Amino acid sequence: MKIIGSGEIEEVVKGKVYRIRHHLGRDPKTGRYIRSPKKTVYGTKADARRALEEYRIELECGVKNPEELTVGSYACAWYERRVNTGRYSPLTLKDDELQVRKIEGLFGDTLLENLTLKKISDAYDKLLSSKRATRSTLHKLNATLSLVMDDAVANELVDANPCGYVKAPRPKAKERKALSDEQALELAVALRTEEQTGCTVAVWIALATSMRRGEILGLVWRNVDFERKRIYVGQQYAADHKIRDPKSEKSHRWLGLDDGTVMFLCTVKLSPTKSAL
Length: 277
Prior knowledge:
By secondary structure, the protein is an alpha+beta fold. It has 3 domains: 1-64; 69-174, Tyrosine recombinase, N-terminal domain (DNA polymerase, domain 1), CATH 1.10.150.130; 181-270, no CATH class. Helix content is 45%, strand content 13%. The protein is built from 9 helices and 10 strands. Helix 2 packs antiparallel against helix 3 (90-107). It starts with 7 loop residues before the first strand and ends in a 7-residue tail after the last helix.
């Protein structure tokens, strides 16, 4: 099929992020005007133009009617786009891949437009009754399927996402037992008498700020503002042993420090060993 027209470039973040797509003409069966799925391009406007031309060639080599897209094929394409952005950690992508495989197994041949609340609910009920899945695993599966279908809605391939109506509630989190005030004070006193190492500093910061382990391991001295008594969370040490962005945009934050923690960190920084941060 020959693509007519130059396509569309939509600027999402000025000078940084764009969405592209092409017009595919009218469907000979329904008469409806159809468009290709959108693709996200990270880079400059020139990068978006190049990607649009590459997308045109890709479509002309094998255009598939969007109305014939299956849930399985679209989920795989969604996953590949996630990989290509470079924005997600290997751990996140590994879990995404696992969930997409499950989606393929359950709804692989189902057309996007034919995925209904009943079809999803019936599949989940069957998994539960046969004890092939727990409510926890179904919650994760439905969360990923919902992301896939949200993407399909955004690309105007379906009118609505049925996953939002599925009964797959988040399992209750395990109760966490926090230290009492007395226990926290006792631990702080013990840390002051211990040899100053990366471990003792990490435990102290966790006690004082409730930061995540990876966030603490990703700290460097420039993240500590001694004058304003605060610490900045701007990166984390991820499970793949690489420094990466925090878990989410909201995870980028400043946290206040008490006088005791400021004094403790000052002592560590002035220490001749400087084994921490």
